[in-house]
Amino acid sequence: MRSEEQTAVMVGSEPPQAIQVDEQHHLQIGGCDTVELAEAYGTPLIVYDEQLIRSTIRAFHEVFLRERVPYQISYASKAFCTLAMCQLVHAEGCGIDVVSGGELFTALESGVPASAIHLHGNNKTPEELRFAVDAGVGAIIVDNFIELALLQDIAAESEREVDVLIRVAPGVEAHTHEFIATGGQDSKFGFDLASDQAHAALRQLADAENLRCIGLHSHIGSQIFDADGFVVAVERLAELYEYGLDRLNLPLSVLNVGGGFGIRYTSEDAPAVSETLSAIIAAAREAFTKRHMELPVLWIEPGRSIAGPAGTTLYRVGSQKRIPGIRNYLAVDGGMTDNPRLALYGAKYHALYANRADAEPEDTWSVAGKCCESGDMLIWDAALPNPKPGDILAVFATGAYNYSMASHYNRIPNPAVVFASNGKAQVVVARETWADLIRRDKPLATAQA
């Protein structure tokens, strides 16, 4: 599946990264011919460039090592959570952030030690908290007062001391879509800093017998391109940290600034990892130095920035429709069932035909899915060559929040997922079948009225 001759090209609107095209004009990912992948594994098919995942994680490590600061990188598994992905990121020195019992189960089943896992979530159930406590996860990020009391009871029943961080809503409005902004005061997540909730939570933890508060956490949003929000959040968290350390004598040692580092989908000017991280580190150094406190261990939680650019979805082109003077439509064999992000918050993507990847655009085409839903669109008004029967459409930067958000609307099975590296492809998620869709259905005892 690998060609010796490859060239980097960019056609149409700007793709998120350089595109590799072989001598047959086929798109290559991880040294694999994507047309051959589509034939071998069917479509829709999500293809991950394994080496791109690894190199992205290593770039995060390099910044911290260069800056000589204590740190921990935890992969936000909500972006894409499978056994193989958990194994891969952990092999590259990452912990795993989970937000549900299902994600926790997946991470544990993948072989990641519980001590490397952190549990998040704004409404953790008693069952999920017990699961996490019994498994011995490294930390639980407490989100609210109800959870704080519940976790204290569960820890006491289990006769365990549980390390926790409190999630703080620092009142920082990140420049992002309103549905994925999480750090402002009006948010379902975390203890509000402005109204003294966060201070009250620390006071409760100072008296808690089975909970050990080791740090503070905030997550100000997703798709963030400006480090200024992180800088403001760090300053506000440092002030709260000082309160917990000096006034309450809490054993604080961790400052977790979350994730949300933006990636390029079409034309966004995404900053380099080094720029954003260096700004965060500099802000932490300044904030803690002026308060005469030792720099805590800095935790970050990248998810989209690790998984997003590495994933590409392959679709087979089906029907087409031209509406003179209005719009051209081409339909593919997937849609909002494997990628709901346009429907949710207007996400934009770059696409090309994998079987003629260096062909020049000829017209504007809007890419529709196959669902019985007028909002089932993947891309509006993409510059593409005119479609031909059997074309394979490649949509880039679909590695985060695509498979994770996949649904079974219209009883459409979920796609297969492969990891590609050094010219070899490995199936890491098998394609669902129609039989899989009804596996948990139970028929009526009698079908007669």
Protein architecture, described:
- The protein has helices at residues 34-41, 50-67, 83-91, 101-109, 126-135, 145-158, 197-207, 228-247, 273-289, 304-307, 341-345, 434-437; strands at residues 6-9, 19-22, 27-29, 32-33, 45-49, 71-76, 95-98, 117-119, 139-142, 162-169, 191-192, 211-217, 254-256, 297-300, 311-323, 327-332, 351-353, 363-368, 377-384, 392-396, 416-421, 424-429.
- With 449 residues, it is an alpha/beta fold.
- The protein folds into two domains: 6-42 and 310-437, Lyase, Ornithine Decarboxylase, Chain A, domain 1, CATH 2.40.37.10; 51-304, Alanine racemase (TIM Barrel).
- Strands 5, 15, 16, 17, 18, 19, 20, 21 and 22 form a nine-stranded mixed β-sheet that branches. It has an eight-stranded parallel barrel with strand order 6-7-8-9-10-12-13-14, surrounded by six helices. Strands 1-2-3-4 form a four-stranded antiparallel β-sheet.
- A hairpin with a 3-residue loop joins strand 15 and strand 16.
- The longest helix is centred in the middle third of the chain and has 20 residues, at 228-247.
- It is globular, with a radius of gyration of 23 Å.
**Structural class, from helix and strand content?**
alpha/beta
Shape: globular
Portion of residues within helices: 25-40%
**From the coordinates shown, what is the CATH architecture of the largest domain?**
Alpha-Beta Barrel
Radius of gyration: 23 Å
What is the tally of beta strands? Answer: 22
Overall structural domain count: 2
* CATH homologous superfamily title of the largest domain: Alanine racemase
Tell me about the largest β-sheet: 9 strands, mixed
Measured distance between first and last alpha carbons: 57 Å
Report the uncertain regions.
Answer: 1-13, 176-183
CATH topology of the largest domain: TIM Barrel
* CATH class placement of the largest domain: Alpha Beta
Binding site for pyridoxal 5'-phosphate: 260, 301-304, 401
Pathway: Amino-acid biosynthesis; L-lysine biosynthesis via DAP pathway; L-lysine from DL-2,6-diaminopimelate: step 1/1
Enzyme class: lyase
InterPro entries: Ala_racemase/Decarboxylase_C, DAP_deCOOHase_LysA, De-COase2_N, Orn/DAP/Arg_de-COase, PLP-binding_barrel
